[in-house]
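Hi P.,

Sorry for the delay on this. The queue was packed all week, but I finally got your sequence through. Input first:
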Amino acid sequence: MIAALAFYIFSAILIASALMVISARNPVHSVLFLILAFFNAAALFVLLGAEFLAMILVIVYVGAVAVLFLFVVMMLDVDFAELKKGALRYLPFGGLVGLVLAAELILVGGVWAFAPKAQQALASATPAHMSNTEALGRILYTDYVYYFQIAGLVLLVAMIGAIVLTLRRRPGVRRQSIARQNARDPAETMDVVDIKPGQGA
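Then the structure:
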């Protein structure tokens, strides 16, 4: 009963935060709701017995949110001075999000401590002779290895696209010209001076 209740709570908050990610007008708010969605998805993975996926989701994706926020700042030129002026106005909202995350952590701990059947379900999610990480690696690198490589190519294309979108030509900034460097004459870049004895500085 407790595991089912935790599942519905995490799912509801996950769906609500995902909707707020695409409906919020402020990009900073969208990033905060995205972090909340990642934490709820990680909690669902814990309930399913995939603790390795949950930790990867928190460490990698929440860490990647910082890179996403960096791209948002580079593309939209967010004025941080203007954001800091109204920071106290959003303090209650930030406290509410923090309370929701704290309540979810307590709920996950409660499911683990007060529901012995949930512990048995988590223990039986993977084969007895291997860990969760080993089971995931065997499936990922044997049955779904081509999909894994395609996902890597998609991420590579996304990274190149983000770099191209944020590349700006600013006036007054010297840029490197590789073709000009390769085509230059050594006589233009080096002068041979014959210094007689006693004429040096």
